[in-house]
Write a structure and sequence with these properties.
The complex is a heterodimer.
Chain A: H1 8-38, H2 41-70, H3 77-82, H4 92-98, H5 100-122, H6 126-142, E1 147-149, E2 152-154, H7 196-211, H8 213-225, H9 232-260, H10 271-296, H11 300-322, H12 340-361, H13 377-399, H14 401-408, E3 412-413, H15 418-440, H16 450-474, H17 480-503, H18 512-532, E4 535-536, E5 559-562, E6 566-569, E7 572-582, E8 585-595, E9 601-607, E10 610-612, E11 620-622, E12 624-627, E13 631-640, E14 650-656, E15 661-663, E16 667-675, H19 680-683, E17 690-700, E18 705-708, E19 711-715, E20 719-723, E21 725-727, E22 732-740, E23 745-752, E24 760-769, H20 771-795
Antiparallel strand pairs in A: 1-2, 4-24, 5-24, 6-7, 7-8, 8-9, 8-10, 10-11, 12-13, 13-24, 14-23, 15-16, 16-17, 17-18, 17-19, 19-20, 21-22, 22-23
Helix pairs in contact in A: 1-2, 1-6, 2-4, 2-5, 4-5, 5-6, 5-7, 6-8, 7-9, 8-9, 8-11, 9-10, 9-20, 10-11, 10-13, 11-12, 13-15, 15-17, 15-18, 16-17, 17-18, 18-20
Chain B: H1 3-25, E1 27-30, H2 32-37, E2 43-49, E3 56-57, E4 66-72, E5 77-82, E6 95-102, E7 108-116
Parallel strand pairs in B: 1-2, 5-7
Antiparallel strand pairs in B: 2-4, 2-6, 3-4, 4-5, 6-7
The chains are: A alpha+beta, B alpha+beta.
Chain lengths: ~800, ~130
């Protein structure tokens, strides 16, 4: 069949760019390899030209895919899968990297940018460094090839897979129509990603991942040339640049989780979060080992191990998220595209390459003449690096349970209290690291006098003891580990501030490390206070006594709020006011009230937690947080009835006389009186209205009495109006329909619905104290790292 | 013995400890039979909702309790008491993973639940633009 309106040319152009970027990555690798082996400048030039063509092709394929998404060419499976015609323009970038292919493309793009920037400064290291980088590029671009090699699928190509040729869709009748492209619409971007944090967080994390290639390439080049320390100087700045970028990216992910997901915190130990944190930890360790090497010439082996390990862990992280092995254990993971083998192969290649090259050269690494003193800075930096490694190992091992299960056939799983599972190891390690960070800068390279050290630290020690004692008393903390970290992290903050102010005399140029370490201390402090002291205030205050279930199951985290009822919750009273639908969001208005001086409840603030109607991922509750200086109040809906209850209410009519009784399903009502002077204000009656109230006494199932007074009103001496009255607790609404003056009969209409149908929400509210300390720490750590990078660049 | 050796031994000890600790603290995937043979220890049980049985969620009395029945992979059906609020979209779930333990009352008591929901646009279905006609 001849199809009309398909844009096949652009796919061919895209595919051409993919093939070209793969071919020139290979050519450039080989040229640079030969240039290095033969010290031949012609090959180096060839490598460089190939690198440029490769980079242009990468730019070309990125632009092509972007144009396809922008123009909504839904005939392409990738475009159809990740965008739709109603998508706001600002999320168009998110469509680009939502899928595996696009995220690979972005990663390749960052590598290409970095390689070209690096060309400016790389000089005599060009051939070996670029050979490594381009070989990585070749592996990554192969993930986009989408060809079959002896039955094996190599890569998945977004430019060649047409929707009508995709096995899942090919048989659809719509593809029998030649101009089907005018009719189809895309599946759309996952609504979870339609969030402003998500337009910046994934590209930044990918950029951070990409930066790990530069120290790695330098390290391999150093091993290759057997120049084991010369590469450290040019690579060092890049390592700290990577630490800054990846750290910022990860923390933005934390901010996203905190603001937009209902994890109930900024870190959920999700496998994918973990697998981006682990390379950051080893990169920090590796960067500090490089510093030791520069100053003292030691730690060569461990430096090589950590720098190559970081890159391999980045590859491993990509393997975990993109191979589908994590399956249902993570919110982040992609679905399996059948590339597990290819991803594993690429990972194994770099692991084996690093291990072999380190192993054959290890005996020639320069050795220190004598052991470093226990009172030297390098010793404690080394200890710090090892503690970071242990922390990274514990996280990585537990995150790898799905992989271990696949290989060994075990059935391991992380327990339900996953935070506790990780914290039992991470907390003690964090205690050690906080003290290392605190004293590190005060120690001199080589040897320090312990007494002098103590003297220098005295101010910081006094201040942090004061902080620790006051926080511990204020929040009644007794756990020794928590106290230890409290003291350690405040010491890290004060000691580094002090160091910068006194020893560095407050100069901005040298402030980088101190500010970064202060930030790190604040992150530990903020994380410790906000997680260990977080308090769920939405305890169940309803009638039911939860303790009858026994101690084990008394996890009351949620509160039920009936519409317009006011309940006490923590220091507040809360009231649910109603909901409002806004596009794909249903917003719930929850008022927080507090008694004022006269004892009346005043609304202090209003929160609008919402539910995102998300047909692809299931509906998602998104929190709404009230920020105070010293704490946050985090509120989110855990359950709400989304479908309108169109359940018919029971309607019945009764004709009765004064003193008669109406029986309804779960109550009865006695007409006790007729009121000729009803409360006009309550019903907004006009002064000319004639009104008659029928006073009822209603008894519910528990024989509790309620009174009702529906009105029968004659307005302008013409129309009759019925003004109903209701008892919401019982679900009864009573209308005064008519009066028969002759027989003294009164007609009433009773509407009764199940009182449980009254609109309600179940919500959870958590107070996070001190969370702002964490965010300030994040900003300072990023700032400090970039100042340090900048200072180093200027020094060159 | 050199200091580096002591440090290395400590690192190796911690690494081994972390592995053993992680494995011993971990939960395992199991079926109902195994979970009920070991009451009091935590398991992950995979299964699907028994759609013929009633589900009870009465937030007015207890918003943190939801009762339903689940069939595990072997087809064994148990009453499940989830000590959380009822998950949104629960009825649409295709597959459920419960994390919890067997109770004395013959029910499985879960603290956590993970659900796999089918996507609305199942494979083999293409949405068409509302305004377009063929």
């Amino acid at each position: 069949m001849e199809y009309i309106g398909e844009h096949l040319l652009i796919g061919q152009i895209g595919n051409f760019f993919v093939v070209a970027s793969f071919a020139f990555a290979l050519l450039s690798t080989i040229s640079y390899f030969l240039a290095e082996q033969r010290s031949d400048d012609a090959w180096r030039k060839m490598g460089r030209v190939s690198l440029w063509i490769h980079s242009l092709s990468v730019l070309g394929m990125v632009m092509t895919l972007f144009i396809m998404i922008f123009n909504q060419y839904f005939e392409y499976h990738y475009v159809w899968q990740h965008s739709s015609s109603d998508l706001p323009l600002r999320y168009i970038f998110s469509c680009f990297w939502e899928g595996i292919e696009g995220s690979f493309m972005l990663w390749i793009f960052w590598h290409a940018i970095l390689a070209n920037v690096l060309l400016i400064s790389v000089k005599k290291w060009e051939a070996p460094v670029m050979a490594v980088i381009l070989s990585v590029q070749a592996f990554l671009v192969s993930m986009l090839l989408g060809v079959y090699l002896f039955e094996f699928k190599v890569g998945s190509n977004p430019f060649t897979i047409l929707l009508r040729e995709h096995p899942d869709f090919a048989s659809l009748p719509i593809f029998q129509v030649p101009n089907y492209t005018t009719a189809i619409d895309g599946r759309g971007l996952n609504p979870l990603l339609q969030n402003y944090w998500m337009t910046i967080h994934p590209p930044l994390v990918l950029f951070g991942f990409a930066t790990s290639i530069i120290p790695f390439a330098y390290a391999i080049a150093g091993l290759w040339r057997k120049q084991f320390i010369e590469w450290v100087k040019p690579a060092l700045t890049w390592t700290f640049f990577g630490i800054g970028v990846l750290g910022t990216g990860i923390l933005m992910g934390g901010a996203w989780a905190y603001e937009a997901l209902s994890f109930g915190g900024f870190w959920a130990w999700d496998p994918v979060e973990n697998s981006s944190l682990v390379p950051w930890l080893t990169m920090v360790a590796g960067g500090h080992l490089m510093l030791i090497q520069r100053k003292k010439g030691t730690s060569v082996l461990s430096m090589f191990v950590f720098i190559t390990l970081t890159f391999c862990l980045v590859q491993y992280s990509s393997f975990l998220t993109k191979s589908g092995v994590l399956g249902e254990t993570s919110v982040h993971s992609f679905t399996d595209l059948g590339m597990t083998g290819q991803l594993a192969l690429s990972l194994m290649f770099f692991v084996v390459l690093s291990a072999v090259m380190i192993a054959i050269n290890a005996k020639n690494f320069p050795k220190p003449e004598k052991e470093e003193s226990i009172w030297s800075r390098e010793f404690w930096m080394f200890i710090g690096a090892l503690v970071l490694f242990m922390s990274a190992f514990q996280i990585s091992f537990s995150t790898s349970f799905p992989v271990i299960n696949k290989i060994f056939g075990t059935e391991l799983a992380t327990p339900s209290d996953v935070a506790d599972f990780y914290n039992s190891w991470q907390l003690p390690l964090a205690v050690v690291i906080s003290y290392v960070v605190a004293i590190g800068q005060f120690l001199k390279y080589k040897k320090t006098d312990p007494k002098e050290l103590l003297k220098k630290l005295a101010v910081a020690i006094v201040l942090s003891v004061i902080v620790t004692v006051s926080v511990a008393i204020g929040m009644s903390i007794v756990n020794p580990l928590v106290l230890g970290l409290l003291l350690g992290s405040s010491l890290a903050v004060f000691a580094n501030l002090d160091y910068w102010a006194r020893i560095m005399s407050g100069k901005i140029r040298t402030a980088g490390p101190s500010i970064a370490h202060v930030g790190f201390g604040l992150i530990l402090l903020g994380a410790l206070i906000s997680t260990s002291q977080k308090k769920t205030i939405s305890q169940n205050t309803s009638l039911f006594d939860i303790s009858v279930l026994g101690e084990t199951y008394s996890n009351s985290e949620n509160i039920l709020l009936l519409k317009d009822d006011t309940l006490m919750m923590g220091d507040y009273f809360v009231s649910y006011r109603g909901k409002e639908k806004d596009g794909i969001f249903v917003r719930y208005q929850v008022d927080y009230l507090q008694p004022n001086a006269t004892g009346e409840l005043d609304s202090v603030f209003t929160l609008y937690p919402y539910i995102q109607l998300n047909p692809r991922m299931g509906n998602v509750a998104e929190p709404y947080t009230k920020h105070f200086f010293q704490k946050d109040i985090f509120t989110h809906i855990t359950y709400a009835v989304l479908e309108e209850t169109d359940q018919e209410s029971d309607v019945s009519e009764s004709v009765i006389k004064l003193g008669d009784t109406i029986f309804a399903k779960n109550c009865f009502m006695v007409l006790t009186n007729l009121n000729r002077q009803p409360d006009r204000g309550r019903h907004n009656l006009d002064s000319t209205d004639l009104a008659l109230g029928a006073t009822f006494q209603l008894f519910d199932m528990n024989t509790v009495s309620h009174s009702l007074e529906p009105l029968f009103v004659i307005r302008d001496q013409q129309f009759s109006l019925s003004m109903p009255d209701s008892v919401p607790e019982v679900g009864v609404k009573l209308y005064f329909e008519s009066i028969n003056p002759d027989t003294q009969d009164f007609t009433f209409r009773v509407e009764q619905r199940d009182p449980n149908d009254k609109e309600f929400i179940v919500m959870s509210a958590i107070i996070f104290p001190g969370i702002n300390i964490l965010w300030i720490g994040c900003i300072l750590m990023g700032l400090g790292t970039f100042i340090a990078v900048f200072t180093r660049m200027r020094r060159k | 013995m050199k200091k580096t050796h002591i440090v290395l031994i400590v690192v190796i000890a911690v690494v081994i400890g972390a592995m053993i600790g992680a494995i011993s603290d971990s939960s395992t995937y199991a079926d109902f039979a195994e979970a009920f043979d070991n009451p009091g220890s935590e398991f992950h049980v995979v299964g699907e909702l028994a759609k013929d049985k009633e589900t009870v969620y009465d937030p007015q009395t207890n918003p943190d309790m939801f009762v339903f029945h689940m069939k595990d992979a072997n087809g064994e059906e148990k009453k499940v008491v989830l000590h959380k609020s009822k998950p949104q979209d629960f009825e649409r779930s295709e597959q459920i993973v419960l994390i919890g333990e067997a109770g004395d009352d013959g029910a499985f008591h879960a603290n956590e639940i993970l659900m796999k929901c089918p996507s609305k646009y199942t494979d083999g279905e293409v949405k068409t633009k509302a305004e377009a006609s063929i």
